[in-house]
Specification:
By secondary structure, this protein is of the alpha/beta class. The protein is 34% helix and 16% strand. Helix 13 packs across helix 15 and helix 15 packs antiparallel against helix 16.
């Protein structure tokens, strides 16, 4: 619900309904205190004390009761007007101040493993009101991993710079802990502690003391005894480390902040089935009108809060007409639905390709819509992601001349062992990774049957001249103008890599991200932390972005059966 507008009248005339009776007077007192700091040292403070006594629980009546003759006796008329202005401004701050949920329970002490810091260099500021402890061996491991150009080395250097900034802040004392909000991260309320002395701990003889992981476990064990009954928790990305900690009776957790979703089944699908009683509940409030070949419906009802912009809805019931539409507008409690173009019909074929199921039709509507700049497609093998993206791209590049060319890239993560360096130029090196492109271009070239063998060969050469294959390694700093960018196998990208690619888009560029979250080959990614999951979740509801999960495979009955049973 939008906030009420800021008051523009004097405090004595404020509307009582515009103020929240439960709001606290901290903002009001802060404004008055700030005002008094600007006054000369000789100014009396009796009026402020009277003013504070009248604001024990600020409401509009309390603000309006501040009269110059009663509460500001020692002020001249100009200062009385200034007081009123500050009271009005403070009242507006009380209205606009967001309510924060109160945290309950004691704060914890989290001991971070080195892999957490090298995985996310900003993890120090993601533990809210809890304290953080860094063993000395963690700093040693950071120092030994800071060299090189890999992502891990960059994160280690960034973590070191963050620690240096915290130590260098004014008034920082390592003995009492460094305030984590001292560098501008105001949402953090905890402190950072370093191991400054040796700790006594007894670990089983089967754990060698020289190993870094075992030393961290010993620190956690010593802190648990030292800070009892406060909860001390080890945070590590290493599964075996967490298993060993739990075997020793220590609390251990995975670092969860990098995960967009806990369960892949909770991922936004982009489509919603309307309930069987949809028309019965919404029939009285439906407005409809025609615009070209599309029909629009404006309705209100209990289903509106569940919808997002560019989400697809469908109604299928035996004996009743079906409805396939997309959400184009949400205003308050009303929503506008727009019917779709039917790409199942041969007359609407895109580069000779027709869709075969409901979700493919949804995806093709997104791929061919000029108002959609970012499309994400997920689905199992054989659902037609690459074929539809290429067909829509070729139509808009060669026929409609909307984009100048198609750029295709993908993460070069092999399924088995690496075969070594590949010869040739950038495009030739990427050739073996683009087998899916060649397969789909072969299918698309066969759809043009009227031109004969020479015509198909010429079409194939024209298609390949408009498709550029690029490597992810050289995307930094580029800007794509009027390009149709396809990111294949996007499930193997990290959120940072996904951000790097999407921010390359210049004016007139469309980006299509495709992937299968069940086929992640990167060893340090899961369904919850994949860059594709991250992009789907963050772009949900954006007016110029859309997503659809393709449910049914259309490759072959063998591929469909293998996807289900293997």
């Amino acid at each position: 619900m939008p906030l009420p507008p800021a008051p523009t009248k004097r405090a004595a005339l404020l509307n009582t309904e515009a103020l929240d009776a439960s709001a606290k007077p901290r903002a009001l007192r802060r404004s008055v205190a700030h005002y008094d700091e600007t006054e000369s040292a000789s100014t009396t403070t009796s009026s402020i004390e009277a003013f504070d006594r009248t604001t024990g629980g600020v409401t509009a009546e309390d603000v309006s009761s501040v009269e110059p003759a009663e509460t500001i006796r020692h002020s001249s008329k100009p200062r009385q007007q200034d007081r009123r202005r500050y009271a009005e401004r403070a009242a507006s701050e009380v209205i606009a101040a967001p309510k924060k949920a109160k945290r309950t329970g004691p704060s914890k002490l989290f001991v971070l493993d080195t892999n957490v810091l090298m995985h996310d260099p900003m993890c120090l500021f993601n533990f809210e009101e809890h304290d953080i402890f860094l063993p000395m061996i963690v700093l040693e491991e950071l120092d030994s991993n800071k060299k090189g150009m890999t992502e891990v080395a960059r994160n280690a250097r960034q973590t070191s710079r963050t620690l240096d900034a915290l130590v260098a802040t004014h008034g920082a004392d390592i003995a009492t802990g460094l305030k984590l909000d001292s560098t501008g991260h105001r949402q953090v309320g905890g402190r950072l502690f370093f191991q400054t002395q040796a700790l006594d701990f007894n670990l089983p003889a089967s754990l060698p003391q020289g190993k870094a992981d075992n030393q961290i476990l010993g620190v956690v064990d010593a802190l648990r005894v030292q800070y009892a009954p406060r909860e001390v928790v080890l945070v590590s990305k290493d599964i075996n480390m967490r298993v060993k900690a739990r075997a020793l009776g220590l609390a251990a957790e995975d670092y969860q902040n990098d995960k967009t979703l806990e369960d892949g089944d909770l991922l936004y699908s982009g489509a919603l089935a309307l309930p069987p009683d949809f028309w019965i509940k919404h029939a009285k409030s439906v407005e409809s009108w025609q615009s070209g070949s599309q029909t629009f419906y404006r309705l209100s009802g209990p289903i509106v809060p569940e919808l997002h912009i560019n989400q697809f809805v469908y109604f299928e019931a035996p004996g009743e007409p079906s409805l396939y539409a997309r959400v184009t507008e949400i205003r308050g409690k009303t929503v506008v639905l727009k019917t779709l173009k039917d790409f199942n019909h041969l007359k609407n074929a895109v580069w000779g390709v027709t869709t075969r199921n409901r979700e493919q039709n949804f995806a093709m509507n997104l791929l061919t819509d000029h108002e959609i700049d970012f499309v994400t497609l997920t689905g199992t093998a054989g659902t037609g992601k690459t074929l539809m993206a290429l067909a829509a791209g070729l139509t808009q590049v060669l026929d409609e001349r909307r984009y100048t060319e198609i750029i295709m890239t993908r993460a070069t993560v092999s399924v088995g062992e690496d075969i070594g360096f590949l010869p040739g130029t950038e495009e030739e090196k990427m050739g073996p990774w683009m087998g899916a492109l060649d397969d789909n271009l072969e299918v698309l070239a066969k759809t043009e049957t009227s031109a004969g063998e020479w015509g198909r060969a010429a079409t194939s050469e024209l298609i390949r001249s408009r498709i550029k294959i690029k490597s992810l390694n050289f995307m930094r700093g580029r800007t794509f103008l009027n390009k149709y960018l396809i990111i294949d196998e996007a499930q193997n990208l990290t959120p940072k890599q996904m951000k790097t690619l999407i921010t390359r888009a210049g004016p007139g560029t469309k980006i299509v991200c495709m992937g299968n979250l069940a086929q992640i080959d990167t060893p340090y990614l899961s369904e919850g932390s994949s860059g594709l999951t991250y992009a789907v979740d963050r772009f949900k509801g954006w007016p110029h972005g859309g997503h659809i999960t393709l449910a049914r495979g259309e490759r072959s009955r063998l591929a469909d059966y293998a996807s289900d049973v293997l």
